[in-house]
Amino acid sequence: MDVEPDPNALEPYTQHEQLAGRLQPESESEERLVRQIALCNIKLEHIETLMLDAAAWAVQRHTSHIPDRHLFPARFARGEQFWTAQQADKVLSYCWVTQEPVEIGEIRCIMNPRGDEVYLYDAFTFAEYRGQNLYPALLQQILDFSREQGLRRALIFVLSDNMASIRGVQKAGFREFQRVTYRNLLGFARYAYRPQLNASAGVDLLPA
């Protein structure tokens, strides 16, 4: 959704709106449908979904095309999971998963997952492999693994104007449950949450 700036706001003005989603199938049949959509329609052959730790990343082939790989050692050191969709040892799509606090730069907040939550972030599919359903399939694998680990809720934020990403998370089974609107007015952050949720239903966002 495009958001129009407030005509009464003072410059400089920036605004970002993100969607927070969670996986909550309403029934077993819905969950089976979600899995079918995400996993059965991959249009490329010989795709592997792998979760890499620091040791596996150290021997991973074909990594020079990943622009932010210099950030990976610190993330591995924090115990974060690096999930990948690969073909012939080349990473085509990836997503980071954590239960540790991590900054959401677009809205200048820190996501602080609770003990029974996991946060998915910094997902990316390389341009030549988009439209192949790699992203929702990868997300579904992450969700299945997280569920097996006994986690209650998976969280993901998507910019409200990123329609391709919104379609991807919806295919994987995420459902929007809150919108966070961020405004920066002369250096002062302002946030709005729709709908307003009680503490147990919301998410823990801390100042960056």
**Residue-averaged pLDDT, rounded?**
82
* SS content category: alpha+beta
Q: So, CATH architecture of the domain at 25-155 and 163-175?
A: 3-Layer(aba) Sandwich
Q: What is the multimeric organization of the chains shown?
A: single chain
Considering the protein shown, what is the CATH homologous superfamily of the domain at 25-155 and 163-175?
Gcn5-related N-acetyltransferase (GNAT)
Could you explain how this protein is built, in words?
Strand 5 (102-104) and strand 6 (109-111) form a beta hairpin. 25% of the residues are buried. The strands form two sheets. Strands 2-3-4-7-8-1-9-10 form an eight-stranded mixed beta sheet. A three-stranded antiparallel beta sheet has the order 5-6-11, with no helix packed on it. Helix 4 crosses helix 5. By secondary structure, the chain is an alpha+beta fold. The chain has a domain at 25-155 and 163-175: Gcn5-related N-acetyltransferase (GNAT) (Aminopeptidase, 3-Layer(aba) Sandwich), CATH 3.40.630.30. Helices cover 23% and strands 37% of the residues. The protein is built from five helices and eleven strands; from the N terminus they run E-H-E-H-H-E-E-E-E-E-H-E-H-E-E-E.
